[in-house]
Design goal:
The complex is a heterodimer of chains A (102) and B (490). With 102 residues, chain A is mainly α. Chain A has helices at residues 4-24, 28-53, 57-87. Chain A has a single domain, classed as Orthogonal Bundle (Helix Hairpins). Chain B has helices at residues 4-7, 14-33, 36-60, 74-94, 105-123, 128-147, 153-184, 189-192, 201-218, 226-233, 236-264, 270-296, 301-322, 325-354, 367-370, 372-386, 392-405, 416-441, 455-473, 476-489, and strands at residues 64-66, 70-72. Chain B has a two-stranded antiparallel ribbon. Classes of the chains: A mainly alpha (102), B mainly alpha (490).
Chain lengths: 102, 490
């Protein structure tokens, strides 16, 4: 059996890559993809813990996370499209327009 | 009245189920009827029915449980009541506001009602899974509502910003929850509070991720930077909904997860629990100080109210550090008065936008002559927010700060410094509130023309004025229930 540390390290690496992308990338679609990466890092943790604790809640949680992530991206892309119509760009920190990051 | 004959095992969720049915029906009502006013009336009707059912359940005092995951106790009742009041005020003015969408009326009301259902779901949850789903239901609906304002690029930008920050906070929260699940082997809060765990690096990562994730939802410093932009970009009814409703949902999560389970349950042992309390004390002090100081520099009234809202969340976070039953009841009471004073202030801003007055503080010059009622109401709300007696804000702040000072049994608590910072902050906040009052009453405006605001706004503002005064002189009206609520969970 693969030791649980391997799963946790994979999850942590995915989470770090996602967080780095959210903080640095300027394209809004790439940022949404990075948020997906972070959510999936948590999913890996859940599945690994669920399997090692012999508990079903972990997998149930993953199903919930996947559906929430899908809903979030669907709404996110629609809002992005709305903003694109006015700004003609999906760039979050375009030099000439107001920043959409924070 | 007994609702078990109607709702069976799901009686605990009765107010939610009514609203959920409403949320599903509203788009159909709009599609068939094609009359926004009719849809508005149906939305208001569902809210009123749900409000009455909840009031009956709350005064009855029975607690219900559904599937070990959702419990209806006095705490749930009082939070659900708060969310319903917010929803009622937001819907009441949505039909006459010029800012709300005219194209997607059915969807707009459905999202508003659906988001409130999510908040109510959180308030009774006894499991991290259901809390997560409820928070997301509210958040995802809010993202769409923010971008639904008509013809305003600011709303579109605020929407994108809100989605990205919201997504980041979701990811942080869920990563934290996965760690907690790994350590405890359960997601149930009541099962968790019976455990005793060691404080190790994994627990630290889990707690930091969860506090950061939910900190974004209540806009606690340093996770507050989205709030002013979103409240400014969204239409006034939605700003009201987010500032008074959505934020209380986050605070409810803080109370349920961190206060009741981790601090009061002492899951981590005495030493680590005290560390957690100090962490929350520092967050509370930072949040109120930064919120108040940045608010001074604002020229846009919506941004000013947003920063003051950040500061108010800081005051309520005091209860996380103090962690006593009295503090929780005071915090709940402050949440209630905050709904009426901050909600009322946003309603006045929304009403004046309908009358063609801008969002700049300088646009409010000479308002006392143009609309005496609006100016007087705004003054009441702002003075109540600053905490001037005999208004509601003074009473609730008095309860809140006195809980931090302690002294009930002759012992001053260790959190006196926190109360001191909070009182100092109240003094700072008076400066920027008084500036608006000065603009309205002392400075001369460019025109003396009388202004007319829609009737729905006048009614909603009158309700807020009434409660700001009544809760100030007769706090027992709600405070008794807040004490019951605190006793039920603590």
């Amino acid at each position: 059996m693969i030791p649980i540390e391997y799963f946790l390290i994979l999850g942590a690496i995915l989470f770090a890559i996602g967080a780095y992308g959210v903080l640095t990338k300027s394209n809004a679609i790439v940022v949404l993809m990075c948020i997906e990466l972070m959510l999936n890092a948590a999913n890996i943790n859940f599945v690994a813990f669920g399997a090692f604790n012999d508990d079903i809640i972990g997998q149930a949680f993953v199903v919930m996370t996947i559906s929430v992530a899908a809903a979030e991206v669907a709404v996110g892309i629609a809002i992005l499209l709305n903003a694109y119509k006015m700004r003609k760009t999906t760039d979050l920190d375009d030099a000439e327009l107001t920043s959409m990051r924070w | 009245m007994d609702f078990t004959s109607v709702f069976g095992d799901f009686t605990a969720m009765a107010p939610l189920i009514i609203l959920l049915v409403g949320a599903l029906l509203l788009p159909a009502v709009q599609f068939i009827g094609k009359r926004p006013t009719a849809t508005w009336a149906v939305a208001l009707l569902f809210t009123a029915v749900s409000l009455i059912v909840n009031m009956m359940m709350l005064t009855d005092g029975t607690s219900y449980t559904t599937l070990d995951m959702y419990t209806y106790v006095a705490f749930t009742g009082i939070m659900v009541l708060l969310f319903q009041v917010v929803l009622f005020l937001a819907i009441l003015v949505s039909n006459s506001s010029v800012e709300t969408t005219r194209l997607h009326v059915g969807a707009y009301y459905a999202l508003l009602v659906g988001a409130t259902t999510g908040m109510m779901f959180v308030a009774g949850s006894n499991d991290l899974l259901t809390i997560f789903v409820g928070v997301e239901l509210t958040s995802i609906s809010s993202y769409a509502m923010v971008s639904m304002k008509r013809k305003d690029p600011r709303a579109a930008e605020a929407g994108v910003k809100y989605v990205i920050i919201g997504g980041l906070s979701t990811a942080l929260t869920i990563y934290g929850i996965s760690m907690v699940y790994g350590l405890t082997g359960t997601t149930s809060l009541s099962a968790m509070s019976t455990l005793v765990l060691d404080m190790n690096w994994m627990m630290a990562v889990a707690l930091v991720c969860m506090i950061a994730g939910y900190g974004f939802k209540i806009a606690a410093v340093p996770f507050h930077m989205w709030a002013p932009d979103v409240y400014e970009g969204a239409s006034s009814p939605v700003s009201l909904f987010l500032a008074t409703g959505s934020k209380k949902m986050g605070l409810s999560v803080f109370i349920q997860v961190f206060l009741v389970t981790f601090i009061a349950g002492s899951v981590l042992g005495a030493e680590a629990t005290e560390g957690l309390q100090y962490l929350f004390a520092i967050i509370a002090a930072l949040t109120m100080t930064v919120g108040n100081i940045v608010a001074i520099a604002q020229t846009n009234i919506k941004r000013m109210l947003a920063y003051s809202s950040v500061a108010q969340a800081g005051y309520i976070l005091i209860i996380m550090a103090v962690a006593s039953e009295y503090a929780v009841s005071a915090g709940l009471f402050h949440m209630f008065t905050h709904v009426f004073m901050k909600g009322g202030a946003f309603l006045v801003v929304g009403a004046l936008i309908c009358a063609g007055i801008g969002e700049k503080i300088s646009d409010y010059r000479g308002l006392a002559k143009r609309s005496p009622f609006m100016a007087a109401a705004m003054m009441l709300f702002l003075f109540s927010l600053a905490g001037i007696p005999p208004l509601a804000g003074f009473t609730s702040k008095f309860f809140l700060f006195s809980s931090a000072i302690g002294g009930v049994d002759g012992v001053t608590s260790q959190w006196v410094w926190l109360a001191f910072i909070a009182i100092l902050n109240s003094a700072i906040s008076l400066y920027y509130y008084a500036r608006v009052v000065k603009a309205m009453y002392v400075e001369k405006g460019s025109s003396d023309e009388k202004i007319v605001v829609p009737k729905a706004f006048t009614v909603a503002i009158a309700i807020c004025v009434l409660f700001v005064i009544v809760l100030g002189v007769y706090p027992q009206l709600i405070f008794d229930y807040c004490e019951l609520a605190a006793a039920a969970i603590f």
